[in-house]
Each structure stands twice: as C-alpha cells, then as structure tokens.
Specification:
- 29% of the residues lie in helices and 25% in strands.
- By secondary structure, it is an alpha+beta fold.
- The strands form 6 sheets. A 6-stranded mixed β-sheet has the order 1-2-6-3-7-18, with helices on both faces. The protein has a 4-stranded antiparallel β-sheet with strand order 12-14-10-15. Strands 4-5-19 form a 3-stranded antiparallel β-sheet.
- The protein starts with a helix and ends with a helix.
C-alpha cells in the first residue's frame, strides 16, 4: 500500500487540527466526505439535538458493482474529542498536530482520528485495486460519542433502520490495542446500568440525635452489604458484573446539622450473565430488607453485546497477523462504546484501533510507525470480505 502512511498521516493531522470538542464536529466529517465522494460514496449528513448541542453525523455508503450490495461492511467512529484539560500542561498545542520522538501528538490522535484516517485511506486503496468489488462499504461517523450519546450513533441507527438498511459487519475504530497495534480486539462490551439512590432521613441538630434520623447511618449497613454482593460469575466471554459507587452526597455544609437525605450515584457494568431487570430487582430487595425510606431512579445507557468468532473476526485476525505478525486477543473489558448501538442492527461488531495508553490524557499521541500497519489491517479485512 505504497503512499498510505503519508496519506493517512496527513489526513490524521488535518483531523487533529479541527477543534472538535464534543459535540462540535468542526469540519472533520466534511474532510472525510470530500475523500469518499470521488470514490462513489453517497454521503448523508444527519443532524440532531437542540441548537445549543447540535450533533453532526455522517452516513456514507458505496454499493458494489452491478448493484450488488451485500455484504455491507461498515467502518464506524467519532470525530468529537474530550476537553483538553489545562493547556499549560500540554507540551504543544493540542490542536496543532506535532511530531516528537516518532509520535504524533494532539487531542484525538489516539481516540480516534488516526483510526478514521486509516479507514479512509484503506478504502481508497481497496477501491482503486478492486473497482468492481462485491458487496458494499459504509462509514458511520458521529460527533456525539464523547458526550451524552443521545443524538449521535443512536440517531443514525434509527435512520438506517427506518430505511431498511442492514449492516452485515462493522469495525469501530476505538483504540483497543494495549502494548502494540493489533494485539487486542474488542468483540463485545459490558452493559452499563446507572442509578441514583436518595435515602430519606430527618434533619436535626447533632446534639439531639433522638429528634432526627441520620440517613447516612441508615444507609451504611445496606451500602456495606452492596459492596460484597456477587451479582454473577460472568461467563466465558465476560468478567463478573461489578457494582461501584461514583458519588456520595449528604449534609448541609454545617458541622452541627444531621442531614435530611443522602444521595448515592452508582453503576453496574454487567455481563450477559445478568439482565438489567434482575440487577434492579436484587438491589431493590436488599434496600427493602434494610427498611430504608428511599427513591431510586435508573438509567440504562447500553446493553452488553458480543460477536462470536465468525467471518468478521476471522478476516480481521488474519489481516492483523499479515500486517503485524500478531495474533490478537479477543476481549470485552473496558468501558462502553457506540458498538452497543450498532449491534442492534448489525450481527457482527468489533473494535480495533491504535494503542490506548494516552487516550483522554494530556499529550495524547500515537506512534507514527503504527499508522501504516493499522491502515493495512483495515484494508486487509476489506480484501478478505469484499474482493
């Protein structure tokens, strides 16, 4: 793939230079569409969200020769990035792509503008070599992955479903590699179920506890028990479900007042060994057994998904081995991704991208030497599935 490194590197630099703090795409998708349109891609911009949080999404698709459109292999990712943090802690401007010691620095370099650049270049090279390729190629790109994720991929998935569009396989460009590019592929993710528990007591003076009910004291035994519950044992693909407190609030700020309520924010990261309903029922039963007066609000941000070894994983693994000599480890660890939404319309969803050690950090970066292998991995998967 002669020239791919320079081309992917240049496009990655262009994308990093766009100040695309979520949900602002800042022109990234226009750059990508400008590369795809000459290849015969139909490009659709799908906007969603209120005026003060406008999300831009891109769906681009190229049909195979003779109108043959299956299988449809999609590449997915996001152009939005997280805030930079203190600018004075960056060695160089986070939105000025900078090279030091064989690395490309900039916000989004690893998460995930380099992946997007490699995907585009891989498709350009593949289409040039196989103008009459079978099947179809799609791009599903959002600017709302790092934000609430309400107006991004979820909206595109709904739009595609309404149009009767079926994806047969999808590669999400999340940074999944640990030590070296291609050493780990995510073939699933855990579900995420959050809750806010408000335990009611009675406010009063600390000197007269008999006239008050301290909600912290009431909550403490239940909270201690919750930390010891084994929710499930996991399974061959997922670790056991975990329950974690993320925030705990109580008190008026005064040192002589017993608070009237305690608020606990918590989260389940759950496997396919449990369901949201089973977790909710068990937690409520525990709270009721402790006799608490409480209010509980739930938020389900994603169900677990799993792609078993099949045509996509086999093609991707072979491409990784050809490009790097490595055999990728399949994993479902880590946080959530937009793969959870795509999995509702696509039977095979995996994530594969660069090393993730610097994501969301100051001086985020990728190794320049990893760019060519990543582009070759994406192209090699296309070769195996669509040529």
């Amino acid at each position: 793939m002669d020239g791919s490194t320079g081309s992917a590197l240049h496009l990655a630099e262009q994308l990093i230079a766009c100040r695309s703090l979520t949900p602002d795409d800042a022109g990234c998708q226009a750059l990508i569409a400008a590369r795809l349109a000459p290849l015969g891609f139909e490009c659709h911009t799908i906007e969603s969200g209120p005026d003060d949080f406008r999300v831009t999404n891109l769906w681009a698709v190229k049909r195979g020769a003779g109108g043959r459109d299956a299988p449809l292999l999609a590449f997915a990712g996001h152009t939005d990035v997280v805030p930079t943090g203190p600018l004075e802690r960056w060695t160089s401007d986070p939105f000025v792509p900078t090279h030091r010691d064989g690395r490309l620095y900039g916000r989004g370099a690893a998460d995930m503008k380099t992946s997007l650049a490699c995907m585009v270049v891989a498709v350009e090279a593949f289409v040039a070599a196989h103008p009459g390729h079978r099947g179809s190629i799609g791009f599903l790109i959002t600017s709302d992955e790092e934000g609430p994720a309400l107006d991004g991929t979820t909206q595109v998935v709904r739009w595609l479903r309404e149009r009767g569009e079926r994806l047969d396989a999808c590669i999400v460009g999340e940074p999944t590699s640990v030590q070296a590019v291609g050493d780990m592929v995510k073939n699933g993710r855990r579900g995420s179920l959050s809750g806010r528990l408000v335990v009611r007591g009675k406010q009063g003076h600390v000197a007269y506890p008999q006239l008050a009910r301290n909600p912290i004291h009431l909550l403490a035994p239940a909270l201690a028990e919750l930390t010891t519950v084994v929710w499930d044992e996991g399974n061959a693909h997922f670790p056991p479900t975990s329950w974690q407190v993320s925030n705990l609030h109580a008190g008026t700020g005064a040192g002589n007042v017993i608070p009237g309520e305690a608020v606990v924010d918590f989260n389940f990261r759950f496997s396919t060994a449990s369901t949201p309903e089973s977790l909710q029922q068990r937690l409520v039963a525990l709270l009721d057994r402790h006799g608490l007066a409480y209010r509980l609000d739930w938020s389900l941000s994603g169900l677990p998904f799993l792609t078993e070894p099949g045509t996509l994983i086999e093609a991707l693994a072979a491409a990784i081995h050809e490009a790097t000599g490595r055999r990728p480890e399949l994993s479902t660890t880590g946080g959530t991704s937009d793969g959870r939404f795509i999995a509702t319309i696509c039977p095979q969803v995996v994530e594969c991208g660069p090393v993730n050690a610097s994501i969301h950090q100051v001086d985020e970066h990728v190794a320049v030497a990893d760019i060519e292998p990543l582009a070759r991995i994406y192209r090699g998967t296309l070769e195996r599935l669509l040529s």
